[in-house]
Amino acid sequence: MTLTVSRREFLKASAALGGAFALEFSFPVVSAASNGKTATEVNAWIVIHPDDRVVVRIARSEMGQGTFTALAQLVAEELDCDWANVSAEFASPNEHIKRNRIWGSMSTGGSMGVRSSQDYVRKAGASAREMLVAAAAAEWKVPAAECSAERGIITHRPSKRTLRYGQVAADAARLTPPMDVKLRDPKDWKIAGKPLHRLDIPDKVLGKPVFGVDVALPGMLHASIAQCPVFGGKVNSVDARAARSTAWTHAPRRKCAV
């Protein structure tokens, strides 16, 4: 099921939210990268297309603090791809459960989305880079130690031969991921921590994302909370007959005593 929302509808929904906490959803939950038949999942975090486009999967929510872009930067830094070829998508919660919670925690609070996952997403990028280098080395029949990767291109230093990530991604995906990988020193970062364009902004400006407040499903019901208008009030009585007879279509009516 695909849901669409106009820019006007998006702005109206945003205004209604005020300063409320909002989560962004991705519908349909099928990976956008997987729609291309030849795209390759090198690992759970990284999908590479034959034309070298890199899709980074993000397992945290974006609530305006930049988590969506920051995590993609960390992965791309260790992968050493061309940032111009990088896009990102939200990891599917359904796939997360099917694959034994492969993306770890999917909760987000303030800066915790980056702070608590930066280590393992960097390792995902570094691991994928080593697998791509190993795949290229195998094709050339040379030691992987003679090869290096930079901006999505693998080079065999002695012969100057090169291969692009997109050319070896399928072979790399068949390899066993390395048990341990070395992460780059932050002083050598070229992508992570740099002031790059936010990946989530263009679609938000155009009103493309579907947020929780935008979701409208057939037969969907809405619940609301009725609170006492006086601070410190307590529930005096509850008439739950309507709620019980209509299976959640009506909220119980409560009277408050003050």
CATH superfamily of the largest domain: Aldehyde oxidase/xanthine dehydrogenase, molybdopterin binding domain
Distance between the termini: 48 Å
Order of helices and strands: HEEEEHEHHHEEEHHEEHE
Nearest-integer average pLDDT = 84
Q: What ranges have pLDDT less than 50 throughout 5 or more consecutive residues?
A: 13-36, 248-258
Q: How would you classify the helix and strand content by structural class?
A: alpha+beta
| Spatial ordering of strands, largest sheet | 2-3-4-5
Q: What summary fits the major beta sheet?
A: 4 strands, mixed
Strand content: 15-25%
What global shape is seen?
Answer: elongated
Count of individual beta strands: 11
The CATH topology name of the largest domain reads Aldehyde Oxidoreductase, domain 4
Q: Evaluate the radius of gyration.
A: 24 Å
Structure description:
The protein is of the alpha+beta class. It folds into two domains: 7-214, 2-Layer Sandwich (Aldehyde Oxidoreductase, domain 4); 221-258, no CATH class. Helix content is 30%, strand content 17%. The protein contains eight helices and eleven strands. The chain has helices at residues 7-17, 67-79, 93-98, 112-115, 118-140, 165-173, 201-205, 241-246; strands at 24-25, 40-43, 46-48, 54-58, 86-90, 147-150, 153-156, 161-164, 210-211, 234-239, 253-257. Helix 2 packs parallel to helix 5 (118-140).
